[in-house]
Amino acid sequence: MVSDTAFLVKHKSKHAPLAMMAFTNEVAEKIIRPKQTDDYFNGLTMEVPPCLEEEEFNNPHYHSIIGQKLLYVDWQRMYGLQVPCPDGTCKGTLQNDRSNYSKNKTLFPIFHLEGPPSWCVIMTMVCSCCRRRFDSNEGNVLVNLPDYAADAYPVDTQFAFPNFGSHLSRQATEVFSSIMLTYGNGELCSKLLYNTINRSYIRRLKSNYSKAKTLQKKPLPYVEKNGVFIKTFPPLGDTIRDMFDQASSSQSNPWRISDYDRHTREIQSVSCTGGIFAQDHTFEAIKNYQKRTGAKAAWTVGTGTGEIAAVALVPSMKTEDFAHAAKQLLDRPTFKPLVMYSDSTPWSSEPSTVGNSGNTLQLLSLIDY
Fold first, then answer.
1. What is the model's pLDDT at position 363?
2. What is the arithmetic mean of pLDDT over 133-153?
3. Is 110 helix (H, G, I), strand (E, B) or coil?
């Protein structure tokens, strides 16, 4: 099929490799349409199987996709599930309409740390009551499925965005979460995904040519990496940061509270009754923020238990810039400290003085000891 000029022209603008499009075409015609998915799919997934070594050697296109995964995300066909409408006020169920492959002959990529992306045939589903349309792989749909079914789609529900052109696998987001939390380094995450694809291509290239040497035959030219082996590249650093920002505010999880709201409430619940707290400014954390925020420092309050009670980005170290946050902190019914510690040295006894070193006296005046 990859040597067929008509097939090549028809799929030259598709994001998936030509060989994967040919494989998907065979799967759609000979497995999905005759409803024989139970014989070939494990859950939602089917791997491109190996064939005879001689055939692999004589077809570099086929050799390049062996082991890659094709997912058929159809909850009715694969698991017999009636998916409820994600709208909590609607009592309808979602019904299959058509797939991205049946209409436009496109596949949806999932990038991971195991090599080239996996490719998905996803269903567009329509609510029987409100007539709204949803994709079968978006987070609002996945979160309403039983765990045994939702886990078959290898993406966390918080990262299954309906408005992005690709998804990141569960394994990738678990690895990247610690990097993003500490460094906010989306470029490093993007580079890891690129390097994974590059290393996989080199391994396949070496395998193919070493087999030719064993058979003492002249190898056929292997497929090019860019534009053939991989036609859709992983998201860039800015996009990955946007993904994590959106995931932190997403309520597509079983408890329906976003990570942002949960972390905010955890900080707001920190108490200090009859103990000590310390206030200070930190500058290193600001390196992880975009300059357009205008922040020069982060004003922080830590309690004797090691918990953070308040954080505020401030444009300067002047007390007036964090006074509102300090007032809100002291209004908490469970925040009644006896001692405050600060390493700022007061240089003026005037409470109205605003400067880099007068924080202690002004905060003491605000607290009204």
1. 54
2. 95
3. strand
The pair phi, psi for residue 207, each rounded to 5°, is: -65, -45
CA neighbor of 172 nearest in space, from 267, 63, 247? 247
Query: 361 is written with which tokens?
Result: 């006296």
Buried b (16+ CB within 10 A) or exposed e, 322-333: bbebbeebeeee
Beta bridge partners of 70: 46, 119
**Span between the terminal Cα atoms of the chain, in Å:** 82
- Residue 352: exposure state from Cβ atoms within 10 A (0-12, 13-18, ≥19): exposed
- Can you point out the beta strands (E) in 158-261? 167-168
Q: Strand, coil or helix: what is 308? A: strand
Residue 218's pLDDT is what?
83
Residue 361 has pLDDT above 70, yes or no: no
Which residues are registered as beta bridge partners of 354? none
Burial profile 99-108: b = 16 or more Cβ within 10 angstroms, e = fewer: bbbeeebbbb
Token duo for residue 307: 């918990």
Residue 203 in this model has a pLDDT that exceeds 90: yes
Helix (H) or strand (E) holding 276: strand 276-282
Sheet holding 339-341, edge to edge: 308-314, 297-303, 276-282, 339-341
Token match 């070493």: residue?
A: 210
Average pLDDT over the chain reads: 88
109 strand-pairing partners: 119
Retrieve residue 237's tokens.
């650093």
By the 8 A CB rule, do 250 and 258 touch?
Answer: yes
Report whether pLDDT(261) > 80: yes
Kindly report, residue by residue over 154-173, the tens digit of the pLDDT: 999 999 999 889 999 999 99
Residue 197 to residue 194: CA distance in whole angstroms = 5
Comparing CA positions, the residue from 356, 363, 359, 283 lying closest to residue 329 is 363
- Cβ atoms of 197 and 74 within 8 Å: the answer is no
55, containing H or E segment: helix 53-58
The distance of Cα 312 from the centroid of its chain, to the nearest Å, equals 27
Structural domain boundaries in the chain:
5-248, 269-367
